[in-house]
Amino acid sequence: MPHHQARPREGVVANAFSDRGEVVLRRRGRDGALELRVNGVFVMDDRHTSTERDLARLALGACRARSGVRVLVGGLGLGHSLDELLGCPRTAAVTVAEIEPALVQWHRDGLVPGSRLADPRVTVAVGDVAAVVYAARGAWDVILLDVDNGPDFLVHDGNAAIYRRPFLHACHDALRPGGVLAVWSCSPAPDLAEALEAIFEDCKRHSLAVTLGSRDTAYFVLLARRPAQRRSAPWQGRRTHEPP
To answer: What pTM value is reported for the model?
Structure first.
């Protein structure tokens, strides 16, 4: 008699409420996928993880540091970008900034299979990634931003500031020379690309093909690199950067 693997039970695995609304970890019935939703908006699942991993892989590939790479991740999600980072022998330390404490706890409680939050190279900062960035200068070789679905499809309206020039300037300052800022987006985000080109040495947009069910689409990773040699940024002396 053939053996049929039991399908994971459909429904809510965990949920929590914060000032930003409801965060839900749920199991889908049709394919058994674990997915993360915020205020009813789909954020990610554990079936289509290639672009989250590409975010980390492309950023590490563009970073000029050969070893001892220090990374800041904005947005924990289901941990696939973090897993990709930790799989690279060049990665020395990762700080994960996650604004939802419940999501961090779900990882620690084992509700997210394969989570690597307990890796000794990982430090968790529970709070807004902006606070971590504005408090640092020349601290990181790589900054990954995956806090929602990109500048054109926000999970929270307040996240719009992440894609604007004051915060992007602060990211430039928080990177070491030759360091890389990588931003995940479900759209081409031309305004973001223009802002990054104005601030950094260069900006490249990578289109990543994805098949969702029977539909072919594309997501995007925007990479910007700080010059390898220290120099005064074009705006230095004309503005200051304050947390939002």
So the answer is: 0.88
